[in-house]
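Bumping my old thread because nobody answered last time. Still need a sequence for this structure:
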């Protein structure tokens, strides 16, 4: 049954995205997500807010890149809309929005970002591509298990997060060159796999395999 669900999830995902990610989300993470729907929504809301903040930060830092400014402006608006939609779902379901500790995923990837330009920008864009691609993949894995309302919402997010992944990767290739980006993506993929398949002390939207459920 699990294999059939995985096949259905893969059909929702662009082939380029599946090839980009180094591994699938572990089944134990999916089980933890279904066991903790309130925590999933709270952290999802935080992730949308952080995604908008990241896009805005890039706009302020790289004002001489018109293509980046346009893409990040569009992305920030869309992420904030998603944030509002998640908060609305939380209210409908009686879930209080509280502050929770972030997972180690994003910071674990950013630890490997180059310090000097222009490599720093390329790496930041690659990290953005991984975050969006993993988000997209996790929405797709969850959809077969969800109620109709949440499944419909997540299905719409698969399309938009897939587009965000393409935007980040496309900008990285534009500024860094396709060959160089392929090499850098492979390096980050090793770290991303370790974060996703490794054990985590708490469950979050981008956590690895949770060993405990922590608010």
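Sorry it took so long. Here it is:
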């Amino acid at each position: 049954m699990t294999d059939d669900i995985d096949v259905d999830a893969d059909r929702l995902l662009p082939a380029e995205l599946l090839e980009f990610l180094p591994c699938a989300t572990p089944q134990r993470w999916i089980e933890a997500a279904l066991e903790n729907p309130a925590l999933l929504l709270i952290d999802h809301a935080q992730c949308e807010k952080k995604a908008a903040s990241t896009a805005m930060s890039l706009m302020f830092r790289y004002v001489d890149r018109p293509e980046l400014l346009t893409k990040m402006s569009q992305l920030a608006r869309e992420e904030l809309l998603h944030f509002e939609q998640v908060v609305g779902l939380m209210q409908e379901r009686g879930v209080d929005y509280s502050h929770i500790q972030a997972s180690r995923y994003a910071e674990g990837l950013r630890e490997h970002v180059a310090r000097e330009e222009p490599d720093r920008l390329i790496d930041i864009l690659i990290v953005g591509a991984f975050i969006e691609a993993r988000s997209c993949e996790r929405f797709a894995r969850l959809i077969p298990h969800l109620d109709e309302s949440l499944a419909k919402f997540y299905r719409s997010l698969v399309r938009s997060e897939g587009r965000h992944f393409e935007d980040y990767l496309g900008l990285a290739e534009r500024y860094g060159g396709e060959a160089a980006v392929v090499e850098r993506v492979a390096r980050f993929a090793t770290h991303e796999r370790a974060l996703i398949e490794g054990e985590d002390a708490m469950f979050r939207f981008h956590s690895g395999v949770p060993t405990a459920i922590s608010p």
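The chain has nine helices and two strands. Let me know if any region looks off to you.
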